[in-house]
Amino acid sequence: MNVYRLLGIDTPIELLEAIKKKSPAGLVREPAGFIDPEINGKISDYFEWLAAGLYDLTRQGSAMHSSDRMLQSFYYGYNKSHLFFRIDGTQELSRMLREIDVLNLHLIYDREYRLPLQMRNDEGLLQVRENNVWVPTNGHCRWKIAKTCEVCIRLRPSSRPPRASCSLRLPWCATTRRSAAGRRMHL
After folding, report:
1. Dist CA 13 CA 55 (whole Å)
2. Residue 187, CA atoms < 13 Å, CB-side half-sphere
């Protein structure tokens, strides 16, 4: 993949899949059915995320990184028209994050996508990586960061080809990177 990056060419999606297949560390359960949560940054009802898939992010990485861990769990689910994500922190996210901090949600489907989430906004456009540059799509998304972070991404009708898979990359969920613009957390 680094060769493609050095040449300035998009990395083929096939190279993003692991050679050795195994259950990801932290997988608690896969989605059991459709969900339709209210995107308000809090758990409104016990049942709203009950059928969602769940990752325990405290099982990601090594014990050495457990002291600087900010994220605790990651829920994901869908219905016929939307993808939903919920990110729980080790404490209330609105207290841990500043207005300028960014949570980057990375999705890999037919291409690599990113959704930069900030507390000061509650909607934005999904971005796609083209020629190593993030370009906005017309995919409108909603989110709310309060006690938790809840995200809703609208699916395009018939955009999913037969037998396609969608995967989510969680490369930096245990750590933060500092920049002049604030902390950036990559999910």
Report:
1. 23
2. 24
Token pair belonging to 33: 């059915």
Distance in angstroms (rounded) separating the CA atoms of residues 27 and 67:
21
Q: Which of 68, 75, 35 is nearest to 51 (CA)?
A: 35
Rounded average pLDDT over 114-123: 91
Q: What is the pLDDT of residue 128?
A: 93
Query: Which residues, in sequence order, are bridge partners of residue 168?
Result: 107
What is the secondary structure of 122-181 as a DSSP string? SEEEEEEEETTEEEEEEEEEEEEESSSEEEEEEPPTT-S-TT---EEE-TTTT--EEETT
Digit-coded pLDDT (tens) for 130-158? 998 999 998 899 999 999 999 999 987 65
Per-residue pLDDT tens over the stretch 19-44: 765 556 677 889 999 999 999 999 99
> What DSSP character marks residue 116?
E
And the tokens for 36? Answer: 């339709």
Bridge pairing between strands 182-186 and 102-108: parallel
* Amino acid making up residue 170: L
| Percent of the chain with pLDDT strictly greater than 70 | 74
- From residue 39, alpha-carbon distances to 42, 145, 149, 151 in Å are 8, 9, 9, 7
Tell me the average pLDDT across 161-180. Answer: 40
